[in-house]
Write a structure and sequence with these properties.
234 residues, alpha/beta, Uracil-DNA Glycosylase, subunit E, six-stranded mixed sheet, 8 helices, globular
């Protein structure tokens, strides 16, 4: 997929992402993402939706990888950047800012100045799925994109947002035996000296019910920072 003459990690990721955004391999996802982009949500009726696969983004030499599930229909599918322009992103970027992995606490568009430090964010499924539930065959069809993406990164810590991301991390970095169980703040070793951390997903379902609080989320990213050689705040 990625031409061999690309020299830096950033250039190689950029070339991969240019291929990715043209992908049409999953008919159900293509139909859904494009229908959402045409019909739009009333609050965004004057905006042009992205309506294509959403690539990962962040620091190309990051040691921390954050793995989600898939772009939100009116978040990443609208803005073209995962976790951008929705409440889940507000929670995630707020925490990354507090823990030193992002230069600002919010993100509303691709050109809003957000920069991630030592952190890269992506998802196993690159297109917004109906009801936020990709089918197993869609997950499998999309898997080669994630495999190639991970091959261009040199991550040491993975934060999996939710059980789906936890399972896909073990699938792509494993196998790990015995298989570790997902839970908030769960921690497990991965091959190659990497570490997997679990967090409840930053979905509104979790944050509005306080199943996930800001302190709980921050604690996971402070733990990631410690694993990367940093220190927690006093």
């Amino acid at each position: 997929m990625t031409p061999s003459h690309a020299t830096t990690p950033g250039e190689r990721l950029e070339r991969l992402n240019r291929e990715l955004v043209e992908c049409r391999r999953c008919p159900r996802l293509v139909e859904w993402r494009e229908r959402v982009a045409r019909e739009k949500r009333a609050a965004f009726r004057d905006q042009e939706y992205w309506g294509r696969p959403v690539p990962g983004f962040g620091d190309p030499v990051a040691r921390l990888l954050i793995l989600g599930l898939a772009p939100a229909a009116h978040g990443g599918n609208r803005t073209g950047r995962i976790f951008t322009g929705d409440r889940s992103g507000d929670w995630l970027f707020g925490s990354l800012h507090r823990t030193g992995f992002a230069n600002q606490p919010t993100s509303v568009s691709r050109g809003d100045g957000l920069a991630l430090r030592d952190c890269y964010i992506t998802a196993p499924v690159k297109c917004a799925p109906p009801d936020n539930k990709p089918l197993p065959e869609e997950r499998d069809t999309c898997a080669p994109w994630l495999t190639e993406e991970l091959g261009l990164l040199d991550v040491r810590v993975v934060v999996a947002l939710g059980a789906f991301a936890w399972d896909q991390t073990l699938r792509h970095f494993g196998p790990v035996r015995p298989r570790p169980r997902f839970g908030h703040a769960a921690e497990a070793p991965l091959p190659g000296g990497r570490t997997l951390l679990g967090s409840y997903h930053v979905s509104q379902q979790n944050t509005s019910t306080r199943r996930l609080t800001a302190d709980m989320l921050d604690a996971v990213f402070w733990r990631a920072r410690v694993l990367l050689g940093g220190r927690e705040p006093k």
